[in-house]
Design a protein that fits this description.
Oligomer: single chain
Strand order of the largest sheet: 3-2-4-5
Shape: globular
GO molecular function: 4 iron, 4 sulfur cluster binding; glycolate dehydrogenase activity; metal ion binding
Bound molecules: iron/sulfur cluster
Function: Component of a complex that catalyzes the oxidation of glycolate to glyoxylate.
Enzyme class: oxidoreductase
Organism: Pyrinomonas methylaliphatogenes
Catalytic activity: (R)-lactate + A = pyruvate + AH2; glycolate + A = glyoxylate + AH2
Structural class: alpha/beta
Length: about 450
């Protein structure tokens, strides 16, 4: 589809009087000078070759909607905004400093009223965002059921059956669940930290709903590694989901509601850094300052909150990181979570965490900085393009000959591990902090103690 076609489509549906979120983005839209330097960084553009699937093309569409030359109900607008991964690789490539992530959020907010009735997937997503995610008890129950299905191998058996029937698209959500299972059972599964020194700084740990629901082992490893490196770790009990799913779906008011709860929950010690171990959550928590920038009642609190947010790797490398024992794993490779890299700007820090494991053979991954196609629930909403992007990632991983991949976000973890299961690749996926934790365990820094570590 050419731009001329896009810009003339669907004018009849357009209402000149309606207020749009994009109306507030005039300067951000005009910042784009259409140079095209972002195009090759954009996975959707390089996969489809369609200018409308590029950052520049999407900005054209947003501008056309803002200037009332295209209705927000136009199919082209929804299609190409939906197909954006929200990975923000274009932001780093852009010499003009275009804040694409914020533009995308506004475009999705303008699509939200239209989306509710589009199809069953959209309706299910809406229901989950409105009735499950904001309610910790319901969310806890949903994750408990998912873990039960995973650990009883129900999801594994069903996905194998569907794969045998060549129904990959139907099998993939089950593979994602299966991919969240631990790679191994430790011989001594119950551990406490015994070798920590005097805690000299307090940190507050953000658990994340998916991480705590399906990867609680990563949160426990994060707490142990922080303790061992001299931090007192506290976990505010009233914390909730970061709101990333809502924000990415265009539900800004839902995201703000969760953000307010988190700002309150983490106000118990306003000097303590807020530590995350999930790139998606971390980038969202950092964006609270932007989310409330125009709200006099919350702007200052949100700004101070966002200033305290750090990825576990960013916190740990501020001091001499304690070294563990060798893991003798063979080659390990690292894939950067887009939101960790482009949102939280953690590029070298996760690698430095891995370098604290003696003798670890870290092999570079071509395209490590490119999205894996997971992108929150993009893999469920846009399966075709997501799979195409994932297969390219898996091909690069295969060429490294590494059997272990480290990545710092649960969505990327599940996407890559599920793809590996689907293609029959021998690959285990870990969070970098899990590997460091294991290295500390091998070094004898932990002791067995009764405590539940099932997921
Ligand atoms: S966020 Fe990612 S997918 Fe979307 S336009 Fe930017 S580079 Fe492309
Ligand atoms: S690099 Fe920046 S200024 Fe150039 S087209 Fe892309 S978004 Fe626009």
């Amino acid at each position: 589809m050419t731009h001329v076609e896009v810009l003339t489509e669907d004018r009849a549906l357009h209402s000149k009087g309606s207020k749009l979120a994009l109306d507030a983005c005039r300067d951000k839209l005009l910042a784009c000078v259409h140079c095209g330097l972002c195009l090759e960084a954009c996975p959707t553009y390089t996969h489809t070759g369609d200018e409308n699937d590029s950052p520049r093309g999407r900005i054209y569409l947003m501008r056309a909607v803002k200037e009332r030359r295209l209705a927000p109900t136009a199919r082209a607008f929804a299609r190409h905004i939906d197909r954006c991964l929200g990975c923000r690789a274009c932001e780093r490539a852009c010499p003009a400093g275009v804040e694409y992530g914020q533009l995308l959020e506004a475009a999705r907010a303008d699509l939200l009223p239209i989306k509710g009735s589009r199809n069953m997937r959209e309706r299910l997503l809406r229901f989950a965002l409105d009735h499950i995610w904001p309610n910790p008890k319901r969310l806890h129950l949903v994750f408990a059921l998912l873990r039960r299905a995973r650990d009883a191998k129900i999801s594994g058996a069903l996905s194998s059956l569907l794969l045998r029937l060549r129904l990959e698209e139907a099998a993939f959500p089950l593979l994602l669940l299966q991919a969240s299972a631990p790679n191994m059972k430790r011989e001594n599964p119950i551990i406490s930290v015994t070798a920590q020194g005097q805690a000299t700084e307090r940190v507050l740990l953000f658990l994340g709903c998916v991480t705590e629901g399906l990867f609680a082992r990563i949160n426990r490893a994060t707490a142990r590694v922080l303790s061992l490196n001299g931090y007192e770790v506290r976990i505010p009990r009233a914390q909730v989901c970061c709101g990333a799913l809502h924000a990415h779906a265009g539900d800004v008011s839902g995201a703000k509601r969760l953000a307010r709860w988190n700002i309150e929950a983490f106000s118990e010690d306003e000097a303590a850094p807020i530590i995350t171990n999930a790139g998606g959550c971390g980038a969202m928590l950092l964006s609270y300052a932007h989310l409330f920038a125009e709200d006099p009642a919350w702007a200052e609190r949100a700004r101070r909150f966002s200033q305290r947010v750090r990825d576990i790797s960013q916190q740990l490398v501020q001091r001499d990181l304690r070294r563990g024992a060798p893991l003798n794993t063979g080659p390990v490779t690292y894939d950067a979570s887009c939101h960790l890299l482009y949102g939280q700007k953690a590029e070298r820090e996760p690698l430095r965490m891995l370098e604290a494991i003696p003798e670890l053979k870290l092999v570079p991954l071509e395209g490590s900085e490119r999205c894996c196609g997971g992108a929150g629930i993009y893999n469920l909403l846009e399966p075709e393009l997501s799979q195409s992007i994932l297969r390219e990632k898996l091909a690069h991983i295969g060429r490294t000959e590494a059997r272990i991949l480290a990545t710092g976000n649960p969505g990327c973890h599940m996407q890559i591990a599920a793809g590996a299961i689907m293609l029959g690749m021998k690959l285990e996926v870990y969070h970098p902090v899990e590997l460091l934790d294991l290295s500390y365990e091998r070094a004898g820094f932990y002791a067995i103690k009764a405590q539940d570590r099932r997921h």
